[in-house]
Amino acid sequence: MEGEKVTTLIQARITIPDKRTAFSGTTTAPLFAWPWEHYGNYKYLFYVALLAKYLYPTTTTEEGTEGSSWCLHILLLFLLRGLLYQLWSSYDYMFFLNRTRRISEEGIDFKQIDAEWNWDNFLILHAIVAVLAYWSFPSLTNLPLWDGRGIFCCLALHIGVSEPVYYWLHRLLHSPNLFTDYHWLHHSSKVSHPFTAGHATFLEHLVLCIVIGVPILGTVFIGYGSISILYSYVLLFDMLRCLGHSNVEVIPHHLFENIPLLRYLVYTPTYHNIHHMDMRTNFCLFMPVYDILGKTINTRYWDLHKEISSRKKTSAPGFVFLGHVVDIMAALHTPFVFRSFNSIPFSKKFFLFPFWPPTFLVMLAMWAKSKTFLVSFYNLRGRLHQTWVVPRFGFQYFLPFAADGINKQIEEAILRADRLGVKVISLAALNKNESLNGGGTLFINKHPDLKVRVAHGNTLTAAVILNEIPRDVNEVFLTGSTSKLGRAIALYLARRRVRVLMLTQSTERFLKIQKEAPEELQKFLVQVTKYQAAKQCKTWIIGKWTTPREQSWAPSGTHFHQFVVPPVIPFRRDCTFGKLAAMRLPEDVEGLGSCEYTMERGVVHACHAGGVVHFLEGWKHHEVGAIDVDQIDVVWKAALRHGLKPMQISPAIGG
User: Fold this and answer.
1) Cβ-based burial of 609 (10 A; exposed 0-12, middle 13-18, buried ≥19)
2) Which of 49, 121, 251, 478 falls 20 to 30 Å from 612 in CA-CA distance?
3) What is the rounded CA–CA span in Å between residue 531 and residue 478?
């Protein structure tokens, strides 16, 4: 019976209506919006003013600048609190550590990330209230560093005042009028996350100022206040808020079995998540005893907490995209580093540079001892799609002595996917390098009985590039022409009777490709050995890195298509540069909140999309080795049929 209750509750969690649509609350109620809502990053100037006040006090005391030390404490608390929320957010996104203890298996989408973008507004509010408190009560500036009596006093005020006040105010916020006017915003977050704790209206956080302020000020007024109590209470309060809004169960159930009283004194992530499922229950701040006294505790909580905290397995994906790290800066573009940064296309930002040294050390540690790990996921038509990352950086793929280790990592990932029952695993970029493993053929030949289908996805990559080329083009210049993609593009264009200037120094490789074309079409494939040969051609397809000098041979008005990673730098101002081949995922994708490298939101590299198509079609063959030119149109039509969309050509202007 207990197992049935747990299953019922989990199913209820999945099938519960999307309250963001059902509530449709108002945004015009008094004190709903934040006063600095439209200030952007200028809102942080308040902290600059505090720093200036500390460094250049306008008043002096007998102790010199000590009279402004309260400014420093406010600044330090802001930094420590922000760091606490960020660290908890990072842990929430470490799927490779906590995937079996996730409460909701749904992903956080871009809509929720954008809604919670200014989650830290309440930290600014608390800082402003703290400044007002220091001005109103000068005694706060003379607190001792430590007073042990304050611990019991602060704890008593929290249990006796803050907890019951919050409980009844929270129940009041769930009344029809107040919920529609205010509290709906907090519940609009579909999946709980530490930042969700800050996603509420201005009025609600004003009330929270009272809840958090009573124990601090009360302890000071009684005479037992100290700086240690101030820091400890605020940070512990934040830690418990993060705990409750985490989507990962971190408290083991056996702790409550060994200490039964504890279950009434502290809540868990599961406990508060149930409140977001069933809003008639579990209203407490941190202590479930108040829900017991108010008869609002959800009785199914204990079963669900036990099931989640002791879970050993989770849902297996149907499709896996096996990527790798591009470089040290790009390594910071992951959801467990900065969620907001990962939700926009990657570009180098100034704030990333201080993280370069520690990331370099992490890279070395991963090189020494690390396995392929899960970094992101989304759901498409009821099936789980995951992105795994090989713990190797781009430059390592070009080190001859590193090849065996990289192939071992890829092989282990494929075998793991096979054990899990994954249907298709798609290899990204350098993981399918021809010189590394023959575009994946190494693994298929070594393990002929694989149930998982291995795909390099390059057939769709070729299709995307070819469909970007206007039909009236009769000549193209192709670099990287004897590569896997270059060969397929050249042969396909020859079928369209487009003259292809194939840049290669190897006559042997050129002739081998030329002989694959029908005899009457071989004349459309022309070997060239210098960039100067393309000085009259306005359609360039770049499959290898191109220097500024090499780009200079293109005539004005040339458009550069490309399939080189990383993409070339657009030096020419009089030319246009296309982006890497990519496709937009179908509109019914769910839980997608991560951008794939430099791709726009909802857009993935064409090889990723190719793997998705392979999975959706249920194809039973491996897509490895040379590209089957006959399959290019087949894969393209299948992609369109499943709702994947080509990116509109909006060439980037060089310079």
Assistant:
1) buried
2) 478
3) 10
SS3 (DSSP) at 647: coil
Q: Worst-scoring range by mean pLDDT, 18-27, 387-396, 540-549?
A: 18-27
Q: Quick check: 458 and 429 in contact, CB under 8 A?
A: no
Q: Are 498 and 524 in contact (CB under 8 A)?
A: yes
| Location of structure tokens 């730098």 | 569
Give the Å distances, CA to CA, from 376 to 123, 476, 604: 29, 38, 13
Q: Is the pLDDT of residue 8 over 70?
A: no
CA–CA dist 390, 401 (Å, integer): 17
Residue 251 structure tokens? 């408290």
DSSP symbol at 353: G
- In terms of DSSP bridges, do strands 475-478 and 499-503 run parallel, antiparallel, or are they unpaired? parallel
The average pLDDT across 81-91 equals: 98
* Close Cβ partners of 63 (under 8 Å, ≥ 6 residues apart): none
Q: What's the mean pLDDT in 176-204?
A: 97
* CA–CA distance, 240 with 402 (Å, rounded to integer): 45
Pairing of strands 582-584, 645-646: antiparallel
> Residue 307's pLDDT is what?
95
DSSP string, 289-335: HHHHHTT---TTHHHHHHHHHT----PPPSEEEEEEE--TTGGG-ST
Of 252, 262, 256, nearest to 307 by C-alpha is: 252
According to DSSP, the β-strands at 475-478 and 559-562 are: unpaired
Q: Within 10 Å of residue 98's Cβ, how many Cβ atoms?
A: 17
456: three-class secondary structure by DSSP: coil
- Region of residue 536 (phi > 0: left; psi between -120 and 50: alpha; otherwise: beta): alpha
CA pair distance 242, 247, nearest whole angstrom: 10
Q: Tell me if 133 sits within 8 A of 195, measured CB to CB.
A: no
State the burial class of residue 626 (Cβ atoms within 10 Å of its Cβ: 0-12, 13-18, 19+).
Answer: middle
Chain mean pLDDT for the chain = 93
The 3-state DSSP class for residue 604 equals: strand
Tokens 């580093």 locate to 337
SS3 176: helix
Q: Is residue 11 pLDDT above 70, yes or no? A: no
For 618, half-sphere exposure in the C-beta direction (CA atoms, 13 angstrom radius) is 1
The span from the CA of 15 to the CA of 119, in Å, is 27
Token pair for 481: 């022409």
Residue 454 token pair: 């291995």
CA 307 vs. chain centroid, Å, equals 27
Rounded CA gap, 160 and 148, in Å? 19
Of 431, 441, 444, the C-alpha closest to 405 is 431
**CA angle (615 as vertex; 610, 616 as ends), nearest 5:** 95
Give ∠ CA 610-611-612 in degrees, rounded to 5.
Answer: 90
* HSE value, Cβ hemisphere, 13 Å, CA-based, for 217: 16
Please give the DSSP secondary-structure letter assigned to residue 248.
B
